[in-house]
């Protein structure tokens, strides 16, 4: 039996109304940061259940609390909003008792909002959502659930057909570089030392808010948009350097910006990295896997970062079976830590299941944090070394590009990465970094984070009709090839509607 006082503590708006922000630990802390990062919203309706999937420390709880804040600000009755952090519950029975108390207190209400945070913390959580649907509660309540364990969300979610979940799953991933730029510009501009830099950053924001690109766009259209941003390349280089340190984690970004403008030598608080790694490994243990083995696997991925290898090779190197290696990789991928990129076979028009793979981390901060933990070195030393080494920084950029292309196209369940994004290599070992299927045709994308890039720096394949080469400095357009600096390309790239 759950205590009413525990439910009340989790719902401070019942007592304080719109003033609850001052009393809510998550939201008040987020609002105190130099930058409060806004995320996209989405429409909800009754008779549906919505699920938001994302890794730890990415801001799912803050997202829900800000949602509640906006509802109350628009005049919605605070007492008709229920929030439950399921980390504090031990059984489905406790959840049901809490929800029933809320429903009994609002018997006459025609519209209610129920937010269930970290639902995967409860065993057989899908059965509770099934109960909410089957009992008719969704006829008057809009239900939103979040979870960090993508593996559990996916497998259990598939057991809820016909219960309002179809098409209602969303991702909350690290901020894209475009979001990072647009939302940090004002703060950075206010701390800039020269008037010229301030004015340039202000103008960049105005122009960038007006233009963007889509992977379906014609190369000539892309080139025109790129030329609108080219004058701001130096400013974007400056911002990209910060992004290579912080990635898209709001807490890490805020921590770094504070330190940077306070002229502190430390890049980020090492506690943030330690907490993240503990959460990652903790989730592995919760899934019944071994922490020691997960560490071995992650260390091997870091050592091989950005190179091509088979699952069999990976399994041999960590002295385990092929099946076990795949199991751990899938778990980490579905928990938004890794991206496994498969090779594509144009003859078979399918993935090379036995071919080489590439494994990237979904964000540079994830790479820095895990490398620090697995090497036993301070995270700031690791970051400095990664950025000063041209080969390491180039591989990190490859991972960033991979995750950004994925976010521009993906849709949970129906359009996931392996259905539209791969890489390619021929019999001579020559590669195309990314092969994207868009509008029934293929786009080849090469990351050349180096000086002096030319139109010949790409492997021509008959099936690929358009190429984009992401350079460090060069820009140009010739026939079916576009060369564009990587930070400019990423600053323009939109996310899919299912990435919040």
Quick summary:
The chain has 500 residues and is an alpha/beta fold. It contains 20 helices and 15 strands.
Write up what this structure looks like.
The strands form 4 sheets. The protein has a 6-stranded mixed beta sheet. It has a 5-stranded parallel beta sheet with strand order 2-3-4-1-5, sandwiched between helices. A two-stranded antiparallel ribbon has the order 6-9. Helices cover 46% and strands 15% of the residues. It has 500 residues and is α/β, with parallel strands linked by helices. It is globular and about 70 Å long. The model is unreliable at 156-163 (pLDDT under 50). The protein has 2 domains: 4-171, 3-Layer(aba) Sandwich (Rossmann fold), CATH 3.40.50.300; 270-492, Arc Repressor Mutant, subunit A, CATH 1.10.10.10.
How is the topology of this model organized?
Elements: H1 4-10, H2 13-16, H3 25-32, E1 49-53, H4 60-73, E2 81-85, H5 92-105, E3 112-117, H6 125-134, E4 141-147, H7 150-157, E5 169-171, H8 177-191, H9 195-210, H10 219-229, H11 233-246, H12 250-261, H13 270-286, H14 291-303, H15 311-317, H16 322-334, E6 338-342, E7 344-345, E8 350-351, E9 357-361, H17 364-375, H18 379-388, H19 390-409, E10 421-425, E11 431-438, E12 441-447, E13 464-471, E14 476-478, E15 481-485, H20 486-492
């Amino acid at each position: 039996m759950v205590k009413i006082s525990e439910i009340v503590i989790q719902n401070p708006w019942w007592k304080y109304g719109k003033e609850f922000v001052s009393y809510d630990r998550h939201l008040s802390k987020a609002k105190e940061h130099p930058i409060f990062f806004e995320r996209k919203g989405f429409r909800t309706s009754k008779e549906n259940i919505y699920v938001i999937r994302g890794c730890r420390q990415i801001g799912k709880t803050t997202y829900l609390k800000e949602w509640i804040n906006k509802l109350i600000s628009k005049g919605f009755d605070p007492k008709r909003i229920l929030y439950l952090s399921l980390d504090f519950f031990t059984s489905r029975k406790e959840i049901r008792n809490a929800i029933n108390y809320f429903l009994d207190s609002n018997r006459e209400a025609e519209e209610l909002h129920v937010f269930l945070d970290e639902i995967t913390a409860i065993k057989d959580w899908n059965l509770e959502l099934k109960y909410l649907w089957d009992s008719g509660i969704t006829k008057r309540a809009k239900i939103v659930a979040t979870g960090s364990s993508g593996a559990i969300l996916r497998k259990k979610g598939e057991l809820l057909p016909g219960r309002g979940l179809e098409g209602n799953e969303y991702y909350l991933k690290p901020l894209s570089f475009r979001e990072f730029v647009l939302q940090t510009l004002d703060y950075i501009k206010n701390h800039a030392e020269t008037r010229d830099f301030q004015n340039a950053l202000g103008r960049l924001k105005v122009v960038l808010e007006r233009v963007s690109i889509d992977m379906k766009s014609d190369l000539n259209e892309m080139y025109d948009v790129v030329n609108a941003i080219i004058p701001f390349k130096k400013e974007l280089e400056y911002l990209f350097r910060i992004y290579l340190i912080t990635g898209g984690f709001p807490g890490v970004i805020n921590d770094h910006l504070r330190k940077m403008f306070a002229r502190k030598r430390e890049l980020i608080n090492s506690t943030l990295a330690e907490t993240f790694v503990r959460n990652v490994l903790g989730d592995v243990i919760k899934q019944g896997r071994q922490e020691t083995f997960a560490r071995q696997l992650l260390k091997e991925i870091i050592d091989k970062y950005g190179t091509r290898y088979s699952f069999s090779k990976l399994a041999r190197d960590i002295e385990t079976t092929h099946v076990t290696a795949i199991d751990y990789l899938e778990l980490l991928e579905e928990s938004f830590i890794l991206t496994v990129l498969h090779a594509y076979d144009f003859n078979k028009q399918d993935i090379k299941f036995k071919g080489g793979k590439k494994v990237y981390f979904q964000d540079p901060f994830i790479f820095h944090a895990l490398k620090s933990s697995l090497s036993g070195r301070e995270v700031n030393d690791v970051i400095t070394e990664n950025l000063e080494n041209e080969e390491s920084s180039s591989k990190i950029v490859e991972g960033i590009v991979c995750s950004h292309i994925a976010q521009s196209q993906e849709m949970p369940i129906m359009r996931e990465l392996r259905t539209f994004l791969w890489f390619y290599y021929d019999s001579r070992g020559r590669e195309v970094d990314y092969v994207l299927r868009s509008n029934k045709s293929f786009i080849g994308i090469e990351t050349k984070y180096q000086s002096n890039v030319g139109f010949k720096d790409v492997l021509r394949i008959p099936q690929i009709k358009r190429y984009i080469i992401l350079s460090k400095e060069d820009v140009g357009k010739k026939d079916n090839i576009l060369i564009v600096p990587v930070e400019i390309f990423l600053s323009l790239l939109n996310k899919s509607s299912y990435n919040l």
